[in-house]
TrEMBL record:
GO terms for molecular function: UDP-glucose 4-epimerase activity. Belongs to the NAD(P)-dependent epimerase/dehydratase family. It comes from Sulfurifustis variabilis. It catalyses: UDP-alpha-D-glucose = UDP-alpha-D-galactose. Pathway: Carbohydrate metabolism; galactose metabolism. This is UDP-glucose 4-epimerase. The lineage of its organism: Bacteria, Pseudomonadati, Pseudomonadota, Gammaproteobacteria, Acidiferrobacterales.
C-alpha cells in the first residue's frame, strides 16, 4: 500500500509514518517543516512542501499512484487560532481543499483526516459520542469541523471516501524511545509538567481550580500516540474494504484532572513538580471525555496503553533522552 502522509514530520504524523513503515507500507511524507522536524521522519520518501501548493501536489501524485492520504498537516493551537484566525482557516481549511482537489483530480479516493474533540465545543454531556452536537467555540475547532463538512459533500459529489478521527488528548511517545512530542512553543499539559519535573522550566501553571469537577481542575481523556496511530491503520483498512466514509471519536473513555496528571508525573519521575495557580484559560471546557465505543465496535480498536502512568512513562523516557543533562532541582528530598 502506498500512503502519502502530510505533516509526517510532526508529533502524530511522525509516529504514523513509523507505524506504516513497520506494516510494510510504501510511505511518502509531505511537510513544510513549519512545525515539524526532518529528523522525526524515520523512513520513506520526504518532500518538503506545502499542502496548499497545487503544483507540488500534482508532481507528487503524478509520480506515483497513492492508495490513500493521511492528513496531519495543520496548526493546532487554540489560543493562537483566536488571535489569528486567518492563519488557521488558510492552512487548515483552504490548503486542505487544495489537497482534496488534487486527490480528486489524480483519482486518489481514500482520505484519513485528523479531526479533533474541539469540534464539539462545550459538551452537553460526557462521554462524548459521535452524535453529540458540533458547536466549536474557536477558529481551530471550526476549521476541523469545516473540513469534516467538506468531506461529506466531496464523498457525495466526487466519491472521495474519508474517515475523520476526532482525537481527544494525544499524549505519550514511541515506546522504543525513538520519537516523541516536540512542539515549539509547547502548550500541552503533559510535556510541560515533565519539563517542570526535569527542571527545564521553573513550574507548571494550573489553569483554573474552580471548575465543576471533583478537584476543581479540568478533566481530559489522554490517548497514547501509538493507540491513536493504530486506530488510523484500522480506519484506513475499513475505509478501503467497506468503501464507506465514517467518523470516530478516539479516547480512552476515562478522564484525568490536571492535578491527577501532575501527581502521576511526580510518581513516575520521582520528582516534585512546582505548581502555580493561574486563571482559567479561555475556551477550556471543564470535562472532555470520549465515548469510543463506535471505534471499538466497528474498527475492532483496542487501546493497549490506556493507563495514564504508561503514557507519562513513555513521554518521560523521551524527555530524558532529548535532554539528558537537564538539572534536577525538582528531585525529591530523601
Ligand atoms: N493546562 C494547564 N496548564 C498548562 C497547560 C494546560 O492547566 O500549562 C490544562 C488545560 O487548561 C487543560 C488541560 O491542561 O484543561 C489539557 O490542556 P492541553 O493544552 O494539553 O490540551 P487541550 O485539552 O487544551 O487540547 C487538546 C489538543 C487540541 C485540541 C483540544 C480539543 O491539544 O489540539 O484538545 O479540545 F483542540
Amino acid at each position: 500500500m502506498r500512503v502519502l502522509v502530510t505533516g509526517g514530520a510532526g508529533y502524530i504524523g511522525s509516529h504514523m509514518v513509523k507505524m506504516l513503515l513497520g506494516q510494510g507500507a510504501e510511505v511518502a511524507t509531505l511537510d513544510d517543516l513549519s512545525c515539524g522536524y526532518r529528523d522525526a521522519v524515520v523512513g520513506g520518501e520526504f518532500v518538503k512542501g506545502d499542502t496548499g501548493d497545487r503544483a507540488c501536489l500534482d508532481a507528487l501524485f503524478g509520480r506515483r499512484k497513492f492508495d490513500a492520504v493521511m492528513h496531519f498537516a495543520s496548526f493546532i493551537q487554540v489560543g493562537e487560532s483566536v488571535r489569528d484566525p486567518a492563519k488557521y482557516y488558510r492552512n487548515n481549511v483552504t490548503h486542505t481543499l487544495t489537497l482534496l482537489d488534487a486527490m480528486a483530480a489524480h483519482g486518489v479516493r481514500s482520505f484519513v483526516f485528523s479531526s479533533s474533540a474541539a469540534i464539539f465545543g462545550e459538551p452537553d454531556y460526557t462521554p462524548i459520542d459521535e452524535a453529540h452536537p458540533k458547536r466549536p467555540i474557536n477558529p481551530y475547532g471550526f476549521s476541523k469541523w469545516a473540513v469534516e463538512r467538506v468531506l461529506s459533500d466531496y464523498d457525495r459529489a466526487y466519491g472521495l471516501k474519508s474517515v475523520s478521527l476526532r482525537y481527544f488528548n494525544a499524549a505519550g511517545a514511541d515506546p522504543d524511545g525513538q520519537l516523541g512530542e516536540r512542539h515549539e512553543p509547547e502548550t500541552h499539559l503533559i510535556p510541560l509538567v515533565l519539563q517542570a519535573a526535569a527542571g527545564r522550566r521553573p513550574s507548571v501553571s494550573v489553569f483554573g481550580d474552580d471548575y465543576p469537577t471533583p478537584d476543581g481542575t479540568c478533566v481530559r481523556d489522554y490517548i497514547h500516540i501509538v493507540d491513536l496511530c493504530q486506530a488510523h491503520l484500522l480506519a484506513l483498512e475499513r475505509l478501503r474494504s467497506s468503501g464507506q466514509s465514517a467518523a470516530y471519536n478516539l479516547g480512552n473513555s476515562r478522564g484525568y484532572s490536571v492535578n491527577e496528571v501532575i501527581r502521576t508525573v511526580e510518581a513516575v519521575t520521582g520528582r516534585t513538580v512546582p505548581v502555580e495557580r493561574a486563571p482559567r484559560r479561555e475556551g477550556d471546557p471543564a470535562v472532555l471525555v470520549a465515548d469510543s465505543k463506535r471505534a471499538m465496535d466497528e474498527l475492532g480498536w483496542r487501546p493497549r496503553f490506556n493507563e495514564l502512568e504508561t503514557i507519562i512513562r513513555h513521554a518521560w523516557t523521551w524527555e530524558q533522552k532529548r535532554h539528558p543533562t537537564a538539572t534536577e532541582p525538582g528531585r525529591r528530598q530523601a
